[in-house]
Every structure is written in structure tokens, then in C-alpha cells.
């Protein structure tokens, strides 16, 4: 059964960075501004992103476990192929959204806001960020921020069919997002202006769109 490779998951995270900077930029900036303590800024950003990666990995393991538990249905329905196809459709929608050609993915993010509304009060209690432990906890909560980019890869984790594969898929994706978000912590204004350029967004969108189309082609050829 075809599945989203770890390299592809990392590339989705990297190319989707234009979305990360726009959506998570305010949170990353908050880590930098809410810093009355003496801890190095880089240590706080690394701690926060470590917490985020832990949440992604946990979510991937749960999704992979759910996918594994549904494998008994494959005698009745092509569950694995359907989940993989859905993951590729999500990547196509993500690519169109990143390129600025379609906004359907926003409806998926709104659905996920139900969970975030319950977690957001906990996030505000962690502020101001003064120590790495606080940053790590904030990162754990940050990992559940509604995000169509995350949901696209989470469906791929569901299609992977095992907790280990699901966890590794989400971990690879999270590692792919690191360069953009760490850079955001240091060059917030310049990076935000750069990713707003149409050519940057369209290039990233086409790259993700291409991954989704290639995945769909693998289902039929």
C-alpha cells in the first residue's frame, strides 16, 4: 500500500513554512517578546518547538493506531487506499491554498478550532515565558493549534496503519517545519515580508500540490 514517505512529510513541512510563518508567527513572536528572564532566546525557542514536536508525534501515534484498528475493514472496503487518497487530496487542497488559489482548507481549520478553544486558556496561563520548562509546556499546547497543514499530514499518519509509522510521519513533518519557525524567532519582520511575496507562496504551493498529485497517481498507476 502506498504511503507518504518520511522525506515527503518533511518536504511538506518545509514547503508549508509560508503558512507556518503566517499562522504561527504571532505565537513565535510572543515567545520572543514575553521574555523578562535571562534565558537565551534560542533555548526558549528550541524548548517550545521540542514541545510542539512531542505533540505532533503523539498525535501521529494516535492516528496511526486508529488506522491500524480499522484494517479489519479492508476485507470489505479498500480502507488503506481510501485513507491514502484522502491524504493526497488534502495535500492538493493545501497546495492550492498556499498558492492563493483556493481557501477550502480553512473550513478544516475551523473544525479543529473546537479543541483549541479549550486549550487556549491553558496557553495564556503559561505566559510570560521565562524558563525552558514553560516554553516546552507552551509548545505542547501549540502543537494542537488548528492548522490545515498539520491535518493534511495527520491524515497521512492515519493511513500509515501503525502507531510507529504515524508517529514517525508526524515527527518528520514537524522537523521539516523547524527551519522556518526558528528563523521566524530571529528575523520575524523580514521573514514575514518575504513569505508574503506571491512568487514564494505560489512556488511552495505548487511544490505541495505536486506531491499530492504524484501521490494520487500512485493509486492508479
Automatic annotation (TrEMBL):
What keywords are annotated for this sequence in UniProt? Membrane, Transmembrane, Transmembrane helix
Task: Please give the start and end residues of each transmembrane region.
Answer: 82-100, 135-159, 165-187, 199-220
Q: Which domain of life is it from?
A: Bacteria
Q: Does the keyword Transmembrane apply?
A: yes
One Pfam family of this chain: DsbD_2
Report whether Disulfide bond shows up as a keyword of the record.
no
Instruction: Cite the Urease accessory protein UreH-like transmembrane domain residue spans from the record.
Output: 9-213
Entry-linked InterPro entries = UreH-like_TM_dom
Identify this protein by name: Sulfite exporter TauE/SafE family protein
Tell me the organism: Thiobacter aerophilum
What is the phylogenetic placement of the source species in the record? Bacteria, Pseudomonadati, Pseudomonadota, Betaproteobacteria, Burkholderiales
Amino acid at each position: 500500500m502506498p504511503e507518504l514517505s518520511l522525506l515527503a512529510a518533511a518536504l511538506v513541512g518545509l514547503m508549508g513554512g509560508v503558512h507556518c510563518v503566517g499562522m504561527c508567527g504571532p505565537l513565535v513572536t510572543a515567545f520572543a517578546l514575553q521574555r523578562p528572564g535571562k534565558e537565551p532566546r534560542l533555548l526558549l525557542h528550541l524548548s517550545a518547538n521540542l514541545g510542539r514536536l512531542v505533540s505532533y508525534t503523539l498525535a501521529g501515534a494516535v492516528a496511526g493506531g486508529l488506522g491500524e484498528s480499522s484494517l479489519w475493514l479492508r476485507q470489505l472496503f479498500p480502507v488503506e487506499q481510501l485513507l491514502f487518497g484522502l491524504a493526497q487530496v488534502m495535500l492538493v487542497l493545501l497546495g492550492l491554498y498556499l498558492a492563493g488559489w483556493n481557501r477550502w482548507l480553512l473550513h478544516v481549520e475551523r473544525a479543529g478550532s473546537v479543541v483549541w478553544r479549550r486549550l487556549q486558556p491553558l496557553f495564556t496561563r503559561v505566559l510570560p515565558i521565562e524558563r525552558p520548562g514553560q516554553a516546552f509546556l507552551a509548545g505542547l499546547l501549540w502543537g494542537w493549534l488548528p492548522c490545515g497543514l498539520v491535518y493534511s499530514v495527520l491524515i497521512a499518519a492515519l493511513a500509515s496503519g501503525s502507531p510507529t509509522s504515524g508517529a514517525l510521519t508526524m515527527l518528520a513533518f514537524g522537523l521539516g517545519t523547524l527551519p522556518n519557525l526558528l528563523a521566524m524567532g530571529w528575523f520575524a519582520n523580514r521573514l514575514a515580508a518575504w513569505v508574503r511575496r506571491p512568487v514564494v507562496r505560489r512556488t511552495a504551493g505548487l511544490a505541495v500540490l505536486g506531491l499530492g498529485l504524484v501521490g494520487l497517481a500512485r493509486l492508479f498507476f
